[in-house]
Hints:
The protein is mainly β. The chain has one helix and 17 strands.
Amino acid sequence: MAYSFPLTRADFFAGLTIETCTFDLPEVVEISRTAAGEVLTADLGPRLWRGRITLPYLTHAEAEAVKAKLHLIRSGGTSLLVYPPQKPAPVIDPTGAVLGGASPAINALSANREMKLEGLPVGYRISEGDFLSFTYGSNPTRRALHQAVTAGTANGSGITNFFEVVPAIRPGAVTGAAVTLIKPYCKAVVIPGTVNPGIAAGLYTSGISFAWQQTLR
């Protein structure tokens, strides 16, 4: 059966054995200077996650299985789901066992930078640096991936205090939206020209790598 897009985490990204990775949120900023020497900055567009993945030595069979899917998602109109491999779960809950069957959701939004979550176990903590994701908008439905800048802890009702996130919360996000805390993800595309197919030598292939960029479509 043919794959559909975006490739799910289980279809591709979660199956990778990763040697090194980058995971960044680069600025999209214009800078100018006034006659008085004041430096001014202004955002030019949405900040999008991007990164590069390098794989370790793989057997040739393992390498070709990965490369086959890379060949697939290098085509136009394809995409994949990507999560932060260096930190796939909250600090308090590295395996997801504490969250268990809870169903976290957005409880409140403020000033496009802060949010509260609900539906969490009592005392559950969103720590600085934790990631979370949720869907928003329609036609198309988009996937937001955010990182906590400040902390939030669930009270006796399972609701956190307001905590700040990056990037800014985009229009279309609504209260009640389900939130993913374990392997939170965004939709991404492979950046053309960034795939290194690796070098086959002896029993192994080494150096397979590729770069990806979040997309909001």
